[in-house]
Amino acid sequence: MAYPLYLPGEPAPSNTLxxxxxxxxxxxxxTGVGKTSLIEQLGFATLPDRRELVDRYVFPLYGQRAGQPxxxxxxxxxxxxxxxxxxxxxxxxxxxxxxLPAWPLLFDGLxxxxxxRFALEQLPKSFFIVLEARDLTRLSRLLTRGDVFDRVHIxxxxxxxLRELAQGVLSEGELEEALRWNVSAQDLxxxxxxxxxxxxxxxxxxxxxxxxxxxxxxxxDTETLSAAHEAAAIRAFVERIHA
Length: 243
What we know:
The chain contains 11 helices and 8 strands. The chain is an alpha/beta fold. It has one domain: P-loop containing nucleotide triphosphate hydrolases (Rossmann fold, 3-Layer(aba) Sandwich), CATH 3.40.50.300. The strands form 2 sheets. A 5-stranded parallel sheet has the order 4-6-3-7-8, with helices on both faces. A 3-stranded antiparallel sheet has the order 1-5-2, with no helix packed on it.
């Protein structure tokens, strides 16, 4: 069930509450960690997700119409600019927004150390579900979201571009594994750009350190757990919160 979210400046009904007053379950994780399948498995009430918040609130600040198509690089550039001006990022938008109270109420999601630190402090009733997976696994999942193309020849210029993109993201062995996948150089390059850009903007290791040890955070390895097992762990976490 989708719950409404009234963003800063939008009129809100009198029976809504500010999000700092509302218990939330906040998903934390990068593209390809398995958020969508987990949300479907849980069946919890949800708020509009991160993408919708950015479309509705962030982009209009910079002259972009809500719903205007942008590629991932353009989206990253605008959200990076917003974070430079608002260090709390999307979490800062949440603190100024309102909704109808419900439990459990799920928001997908926050990314990066600055956002989660801001949320820890400014959304004191919120809890965090941290979904983790290796960059290689996220890349593989991105490539299998749509139709997978037959593999084509990767020439020297393609290989050089891929090696450059993979720096700091994939090890040499992981890149060699990716090159053996039955995908085109073009598709592999496009998806690796997304993974590399996210890695540059949101270091998952720093995000993990920001939440590690907090009783308000649950960490899940989506490579070793099925969506059903993840959902069971979250439901047990929710029950402990109520206890």
